[in-house]
């Protein structure tokens, strides 16, 4: 059984790796990277979020996200504002909104290609299965 589980784990990782490489390469055309675009998406979903919240949303450490946020701020894609207490809130700038929108178009194209081998019902099944695997433990 362990061989099958290891093969499954490797297949998931391989699919993720291919997807990330394709996205990172294609996003260069709109002047961003996958890590930057993912941060812009997270900020867009949660305007005013802290670095801690955004690090968790983007699967990064707080330190790594802080460095990334600094680069995004220097590129005028993100604005950091003082929040309650020592909290620093993150917001997209108009330029950040434009890069995010351009990235969505690129991602839609790349992901359609990445999942083209699966018909719609199979994609829906895969999504459902992955959502079950990543659901919070008490949600089962």
Please write out the topology.
Elements: H1 2-27, H2 34-45, H3 51-57, H4 62-74, E1 78-82, E2 88-92, H5 94-114, H6 120-134
Antiparallel strand pairs: 1-2
Which structural class do you get from the secondary structure elements? mainly alpha
Helical proportion, percent range: 55-70%
The strand line-up of the biggest sheet is 1-2
Total E-strand runs: 2
List segments where confidence is low: pLDDT < 50 over at least 5 consecutive residues: none
How would you state the average pLDDT, rounded? 94
Q: C-alpha Rg, in Å? A: 17 Å
Question: How would you sum up this structure, described in words?
Answer:
The chain has 140 residues and is mainly alpha-helical. 67% of the residues lie in helices and 7% in strands. The protein contains six helices and two strands, in the order ααααββαα. Strand 1 and strand 2 form a beta hairpin. Helix 1 packs across helix 5 (94-114) and helix 3 packs across helix 4. The radius of gyration is 17 Å and the shape is globular. The chain starts with a helix and ends in a 6-residue tail after the last helix. The mean pLDDT is 94.
Task: Label this structure with key terms.
single chain; 140 residues; mainly alpha; two-stranded antiparallel ribbon; globular
Brief rundown of the structure:
Helices cover 67% and strands 7% of the residues. With 140 residues, it is mostly helical. Strand 1 (78-82) and strand 2 (88-92) form a beta hairpin.
């Amino acid at each position: 059984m362990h061989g099958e589980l290891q093969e499954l784990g490797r297949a998931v990782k391989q699919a993720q790796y291919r997807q990330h490489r394709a996205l990172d390469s294609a996003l260069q055309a709109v002047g961003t990277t996958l890590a930057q675009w993912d941060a812009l998406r997270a900020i867009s979903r949660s305007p005013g979020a802290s670095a801690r919240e955004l690090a968790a949303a983007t699967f990064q450490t707080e330190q790594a996200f802080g460095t990334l946020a600094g680069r995004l701020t220097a590129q005028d894609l993100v604005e950091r504002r003082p929040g309650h207490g020592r909290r620093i809130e993150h917001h997209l700038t108009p330029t950040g909104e434009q890069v995010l929108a351009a990235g969505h178009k690129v991602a839609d194209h790349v992901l359609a290609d990445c999942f083209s081998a699966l018909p719609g019902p199979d994609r829906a099944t895969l999504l459902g299965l992955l959502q079950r695997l990543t659901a919070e433990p008490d949600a089962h």
